[in-house]
Design goal:
Largest sheet: 6 strands, mixed
Distance between the termini: 47 Å
Structural class: alpha/beta
Shape: globular
Radius of gyration: 22 Å
Low-confidence stretches: 1-10, 19-27, 39-66
Helix content: 40-55%
Bound molecules: iron/sulfur cluster
């Protein structure tokens, strides 16, 4: 991994932000796949969008109910993400699993900070501007879940077909799959794919925008590494033919034979493909994907929100065993097979800026453990 650019001193913009938020040196946009997907014209029209947002999925519980009691009402996967997980669910878990859990069960106590919201909006705008620089978006009326997923497939197919026709850049590319034969489905949105028509190499790039010019922290780098590793895994699985349409249909509860609505059928003809349903469209996608090569290099670019200047650029090496181990451990949480874990003592600084610090059971337990240890030492 290498840093490419040295940042300048902070500006008035940074000074204003810093006056409003503590510890913002660590702050980047932290925009999830879920939020970015909501910018897609197709998702704007999703009939079930409301049911899939964190807010609507929240289970209202009394603050005094313990996590043990909560666990009895179903696994986190069943309760919070029936059907599929977002890639960004795992990156949030990488930051703090306990925090992720509270974000589902106790979202009501999150304080909305207008300055943090401004940083998020700036980040989203930059993502959108980059996307619109390479293609336009067209609203398409969807009438069923099958239509919604057809739009995602069309957007992925557009990128793939573009590469096969010599296009070198695609942005905001949907990706999905069920990695490592774990029977859990994932959906994500890749910021950027770069295709080299000479070598056929495909590079993947994740854009992170930063309010400040400070380098990304170790904890942030860990999150971003996991994100690009998982994107590569999902993309490569499609290239290798490791995903079946039956798996897609099962997890997303889709009827492969259901006819698309009029608007989606029309959109498909504009892309010179004519399929009545997902059965044919997915076959076509899988066949086209298998004409490509696996992702070669993984890049993470950190861009300053105010100046739009690239601050840092890292490359990450792919490690399938490492990803598989992390994946297996994280899925144990989602399946309710192990207790929820908070941050280690080395990362206790994360608690200082956590909305759930006052009610966090993990933090209270750890603090008790350490004070008992200290007392024992004194004796
Ligand atoms: Fe995680 Fe600390 Fe927040 Fe608890 S207080 S949820 S351990 S970051």
């Amino acid at each position: 991994m290498a840093d490419s650019t040295k940042p300048e001193n902070g500006s008035k913009y940074e000074a204003d932000l810093k006056r409003n938020i503590n510890d913002l040196d660590l702050w980047d946009d932290d925009i999830s796949d879920e939020i970015l997907s909501s910018y897609d014209s197709d998702i704007l029209l999703m009939p079930d969008k409301k049911q899939r947002t964190n807010k609507e999925m929240t289970v209202k519980v009394d603050i005094k109910v313990s996590t043990d009691q909560l666990a009895r009402h179903g696994t986190p996967l069943e309760r919070f993400r029936p059907g599929y997980l977002w890639v960004s669910d795992l990156t949030k878990q990488n930051w703090c699993e306990q925090q992720l859990y509270y974000s589902f069960t106790m979202s009501g106590i999150i304080e909305v900070n207008p300055v943090v919201q401004k940083v998020m909006t700036e980040g989203s705008n930059l993502h959108l501007a980059r996307e619109l620089a390479v293609h336009d978006t067209v609203p398409v009326k969807v009438t069923s879940n099958e239509d919604i997923w057809a739009i995602k497939v069309i957007n992925l197919l557009n990128a793939v077909q573009g590469f096969l026709n010599g296009v070198t850049l695609a942005r905001e590319v949907p990706i999905f799959g069920a990695p490592f034969q774990q029977d859990v489905f994932f959906v994500g949105l890749i910021d950027e794919l770069r295709f080299d028509p000479e070598s056929y190499n495909i590079d993947l790039l994740e854009l992170k925008t930063k309010a400040f010019k400070s380098p990304p922290s170790k904890a942030q780098k860990s999150q971003h590494r996991l994100q690009v590793l998982l994107y590569k895994k999902l993309f490569d699985d499609l290239v290798k033919g490791n995903l079946s349409k039956e798996t897609v249909a099962k997890h997303l509860r889709l009827d492969l034979k259901r006819d698309f609505g009029e608007a989606v059928s029309l959109e498909l003809t504009k892309h010179l493909v004519e399929f009545q349903n997902l059965d044919g469209l997915l076959d076509h996608l899988f066949q086209r994907m298998q004409c490509l090569t696996c992702v070669s290099q993984l890049h993470i670019e950190y861009v300053h929100q105010e100046s739009k200047q690239t601050l840092y650029h890292h490359t990450e090496d792919y490690d399938d065993d490492d990803l598989s181990n992390i994946f297996e451990d994280y899925l144990k949480f989602w399946r309710g097979q192990r207790p929820i874990a908070g941050v280690d003592i080395e990362e206790a600084w994360k608690c200082q800026k956590c909305d759930f610090a006052d009610i966090c059971e993990w933090r209270a337990k750890k603090s008790e453990e350490y004070s008992s240890k200290n007392k024992a030492k004194i004796k």
